[in-house]
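Sorry to interrupt, but I need a hand with the structure work. I would like you to pick a protein and set down its sequence and fold. Please put the record directly below this note.
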Amino acid sequence: MMRNIDDIEPQNPDQGFQFPGAFEITALGRADADLEVRVPQVIEALGLSVIAGSLRSRPSREGHYVSVAVTFTCPDRASYERVHEMLRANEAIRWTI
């Protein structure tokens, strides 16, 4: 389910990291692991929406690794932490930030 980023309202606009909201996550892993497909799949399998057109990827200098960043909508901190947990559990992903 795609949501428009403009429709998401933070609970307290005076604070920074607020839920619900749209958040970017970056996963770094092996270049041959098709992370451009895997990262959004993991997020969507958790019932969250990846914002269309937000995916960016960049290979490492030697081409062995790739970083993949996507923005997704998230209702609460537990869901946000679960995304990091599930991505880090994937054998092809080394780090998330």
